[in-house]
């Protein structure tokens, strides 16, 4: 694998496992509105999508005002339960530190809110590791739109050909493709190797330590 000038990461199921908190928050909102019996696996398969899209998938609701209500309730639940139930994957801190020492720029592109990401990463990583975090509140079009990716490239002053985007889902693969950057798939999440390999990719790997094998 070549060495890139910038490494941009998805967050959920790429850098961190927040599935315990996500499932709890979704379940609290869903059950409050009478949606019972939805399996954890089904909820986890929506991770990486916007909250509105996830609730629509899980409930069948398409009314934008209802989905916005669910989103607001989820955010309140997440204020209580998300950060405490989110854990970086074991290799993440060492990998990001090593990439930073090589002179690379490091960023996160996520549908998750930026403040939520910063809250966790501020507890887990030394200051200055992250050069940019683009969250759901920073864009008008969410992944797989390349808007967040393009914003990061502009702010970091790097070219698409010098950038690697790392993610765990089909949405991430589609985002990289739309932004004309190389894609590395990581198998931390709910998406299979075969699903990721169906898209243009540099490699599909078990964990992020593979980024250090130049």
Features of this protein?
alpha/beta; 14% strand; DNA polymerase, domain 1; two-stranded antiparallel sheet; 2 domains; 43% helix; single chain; phosphoglycolate phosphatase; Rossmann fold; EC 3.1.3.18; HAD_2; HAD_sf; HAD-like_sf; 214 residues; six-stranded parallel sheet
What does this protein structure show overall?
By secondary structure, the protein is an alpha/beta fold. The chain has two domains: 6-17 and 87-212, HAD superfamily/HAD-like (Rossmann fold), CATH 3.40.50.1000; 19-84, Putative phosphatase, domain 2 (DNA polymerase, domain 1), CATH 1.10.150.240. The chain is 43% helix and 14% strand. It has helices spanning 19-32, 40-44, 51-59, 64-81, 92-101, 114-124, 147-156, 170-179, 193-197, and strands at 6-9, 16-17, 87-88, 105-109, 132-134, 163-167, 182-186, 203-205. The protein has a six-stranded parallel sheet, with helices on both faces. Strand 6 (163-167), helix 8 and strand 7 (182-186) form a beta-alpha-beta unit. Helix 1 (19-32) packs across helix 4 (64-81) and helix 3 packs across helix 4. The longest helix is centred in the middle third of the chain and has 18 residues, at 64-81. The chain is globular, with a radius of gyration of 17 Å. InterPro entries: HAD-like_hydrolase_sf, HAD-like_sf, HAD-SF_hydro_IA, HAD_2, HAD_sf, PGP-like_dom2. Its EC number is 3.1.3.18. This is phosphoglycolate phosphatase.
